[in-house]
Amino acid sequence: MTRVAVLAGGVGAARFLDGLVRVVPPADVTAIVNVGDDIEWAGLHISPDLDTVMYTLADMVNPETGWGLRGESRRTLDRLSELGGPDWFMIGDLDLATHLFRTHWLGQGNPLSTVTRDLVKRAGLELFITPVTDDRLRTMVDTDAGEFSFQDYFVRRRAVDRVHSLRFDGAETARPAPYVVEALNESDVIVIAPSNPFLSIDPLLSVPGLRELVASNRSKVAAVSPIIGGEAVKGPAADILQSMGHDVSALGVARLYEDLAEVFVLDETDAALASTIESETGMRVHIMPTLMTDVEAKMALAAGTLKAALHDG
Ligand code: FO1
Q: What's residue 240's pLDDT?
């Protein structure tokens, strides 16, 4: 039995988890998911990363975007547009039901982790998916044009502003959600998913105690590089690495994780960086294909990562 805890953002993490639950029993997997991207939109609480993970694993995700639900229409949003908005956030008609459900139950006083567990159960999933915290935590992006919440920066302003720094509003007082600490301590392997280190992983680790907890478990932590050949597979990771003064490469990512992970999973394309990463960071580098193009590729990456973390590679 191999119990695995995964620090997860959105699309990249969701694809990794989709492979993972096919190589270990789903009930042995805990996904600890970023909520820094959450947004209150038109009175609704939206948790994009939780939904992306849930929809992907339930095979309901829109394959073109990697978020939202497959086959949904946008009639409500179009009507909202006719009424004068707010219409800048693309909420599909079926996805809307999730946000109505979540907002309703949060409004009844239930914590986000409980509502998430209910949604996950109703999606027929056996893995444990939890927000990293039930408390309010929001990624704020400081740019040339001022400070914006993450979705404001990323969707409304189309990520055009130059990023100086990030701040995680609420982090100082946020507490880990139930079972997060146990999952990290009791798992055999902790995986830092191929997610954006600044926008997905840092907010998770900003919850007091979690960075130290992961670092103290370093010998069982494997990080998968989200950067391949100097480019992010999806999203603004490469731009942000650059504008915040980091190397836009797997080496840049490895430097960010050197205190947290003993194993670094590097794509074949970047094999030439392996010896520099090993000598600079002290991590053990494992080279394998990391592009998750189909189910087989996702499974191979998950299996390879576990093997590497279990000192078995
Ligand atoms: N991403 C966009 O680029 N445009 C959107 O209008 C948009 C809407 C949206 C609605 C629900 C949801 O769960 C995700 C959505 N995303 C959208 C993705 C979202 O911004 C993610 O947080 C990022 O992709 C980063 O993980």
A: 75
pLDDT digit string, tens, across residues 28-64: 999 999 999 999 999 999 999 999 999 999 999 999 9
Give Cβ neighbours of residue 284 (< 8 Å, ≥ 6 apart).
262, 263, 264, 278, 308
Nearest residue (by CA) to ligand 1, atom 12, is 48
**Domain 4-137+171-309 CATH (choose: 3.10.20.30, 3.40.50.10680, 3.40.440.10, 3.40.50.2000):** 3.40.50.10680
Identify whether the C-beta of residue 200 lies closer than 8 Å to the C-beta of residue 33. Answer: no
- Could you report the per-residue pLDDT of 121-137, keeping only the tens digit for each? 999 999 999 999 999 99
Around ligand 1, the residues with Cβ closer than 6 Å are: 9-10, 37, 46, 48-49, 51-52, 67-68, 89-91, 95, 151, 154-155, 235
Among 40, 46, 67, name the best residue to mutate to test ligand 1's pocket (greatest count of ligand atoms within 8 A of Cβ). Answer: 67
CA distance 62 to 52: 9
Mean pLDDT over the full length of the chain: 95
Beta bridge partners of residue 32, listed in sequence order: 7, 130
User: What's the gap in Å between 49 CA and the centre of ligand 1?
Assistant: 9
Q: Which residue ranges make up each domain of the chain?
A: 4-137+171-309
Nearest CA to ligand 1 atom 2: 155
268: left (phi over 0), alpha (psi -120 to 50) or beta: alpha
Overall residue count recorded for the chain in this entry: 313
Structure tokens at 229: 């050949």
285, 258 Cβ separation under 8 angstroms: no
